[in-house]
Amino acid sequence: MFPALLPTYNRTDIAFVRGEGSWLFAEDGKRYLDFGAGIAVNAFGHANPRLVAALTEQAGKLWHTSNLYRVPGQESLAKKLVANSFADTVFFTNSGAEAAELAFKMARRYQFVSGHPERYQIISFEGAFHGRTLATIAATGNEKYLEGFGPKVAGFDQVPLGDLDALNKAIGPQTAALIIEPLQGEGGVRSVPPEFLRALRKICDDKGLLLIFDEIQTGIGRTAKLFAYEWLGIAPDIMCLAKAIGGGFPLGALLATAEAAKGMTIGTHGTTYGGNPLAMAVGNEALDMVLAPGFLEHVAKTANYLSQQLGALVAGHPAIFESVRGQGLMLGLKMKIPNTDFINAARAAGLIVLPAGENVVRLLPPLTLTEDEAREGVALLGQAATALEAQKAAAQ
Ligand SMILES: *Cc1c(COP(=O)(O)O)cnc(C)c1O
Q: Can you give the pLDDT at residue 259?
């Protein structure tokens, strides 16, 4: 019989029923330390009391009105995002892919109203991940995601990450914008040289293109700055956010300069749910927490500690790990054994970690992780490595 639940996921046979801070509890009562945070979403841990209070208080008042009316929570959250970023304006979505879709529409529309209707091409970079809608799989460029879904949406091209010559060759009279993750997530926690990102800024300025940063995974404190672009000394024209911005409530956002957004006049875009009062109650509270004095310093300190400990772990298990990569609390372990084998062993030891491209095990703990929890997580990674070494030795 065909499964009642569409089988597009190869799910692990485990159901979590409760969470508390950095910990998850499964149906059978087993406790897990969560270094996956629902794929960088639960940045404030599970059942964060402030987020629970914000959501439940709003839930007793008003859930949804649509965007035909003013939504005060959107106005306050947009103001805060604008005050703390390069952007002048914000649009709220329900997901990351929707934010990326709007980024593409906005870039094309910008060129259109600037007298360049011929400029529609969006260039992305190999190893990217921008979502699973038709346009975002075209930008993602992964053949596995494109196969069988008909002709790739027109106007999307991809070049190797870090290759300026290839990029300059790909840019033509039809190019509208470039999109890049300042640190690739799904692609394998692959960092992008800062000088490459700064070169993209210059190319966009010189050629009248828009620079789009997909900060859906890197944004909202993950790299120990509010946004990863802040490390670079440059800013994009358009930025996509999602994941941590809602702390677990579905929420995304597109941020843009007034110039980039100038084509988005009344009627050019819409959403029924995006930015609804429930999402805004949580989003406002979440952003207040990240912006509170000391929060990002805590992320930086924990990240520093964790990456040092991981360095020692890698050195102690040379047959299992190759290296540590990443920035802030977006870290990766490049593996010498299949990452999925290690993820299973870590789970058996009581630790949740995630896969990523290039055979990397991705660590995305809540930003509220304590140093004790970081130490415990590294100990569990060590247990998993030891168990796999013992298995390997027994097989020989
Ligand atoms: C998760 C992710 C997306 C897609 O977000 P959805 O909410 O799943 O649509 C896009 N870009 C990046 C960098 C992501 O990490």
A: 98
